[in-house]
UniProtKB/TrEMBL annotation:
Pfam families: EF-hand_7. One of its GO terms (molecular function) is calcium ion binding. Residues 71-106 form the EF-hand domain. This is EF-hand domain-containing protein. Keywords: Calcium. Gene3D superfamilies: EF-hand.
Length: 138
């Protein structure tokens, strides 16, 4: 499921700074992706995550870009190698956590203080950041 949410950099950074909430979300997502439960994410297991990262990719004006199927495989493989720090062909929980944090910070930096509309997957990290913001502002 996809939904449209308003997001700014502070929302994402606050989520990352909340070590407990962030670690919990990372572990839960990792377990969801690790379909054979061997504690490692291989390329085909990571594909779903990489696809959700592509959805939030945006140009300079903050517009969400549609995926380009022709270039997708190449892009996903290069994203995967970014996660796979030791290049052993699999992403460990430590690699996944480190890289996810880095990407969230990069996205937050890109957003700055001006909120933008983003299309988010229901189980994505950014969606959880938004949900966390809603629940903490009550
Ligand atoms: Ca696995
Ligand atoms: Ca690795």
């Amino acid at each position: 499921m996809l939904s449209t949410e308003i997001l700014d950099g502070a929302t994402i950074l606050n989520f990352i700074k909340d070590e407990e909430a962030f670690t919990f979300a990372v572990r839960r997502r990792f377990a969801e992706l690790d379909t054979d439960n061997d504690g490692l994410l291989r390329y085909d297991e990571m594909l779903k995550e990489l696809q959700s990262l592509r959805v939030i990719e945006s140009d300079d004006t903050g517009t969400v870009l549609k995926n380009d199927p022709a270039k997708d495989d190449e892009v996903y493989r290069s994203l995967f190698s970014q996660f796979d720090h030791d290049s052993d062909g699999a992403v460990s929980l430590a690699e996944y956590t480190a890289e996810t944090k880095k990407m969230m910070v990069a996205i937050a930096d890109g957003l700055g203080f001006s909120p933008v509309q983003m299309i988010l997957e229901d189980d994505s990290f950014l969606k959880r950041a938004v949900e966390r913001k809603h629940s903490s502002t009550v």
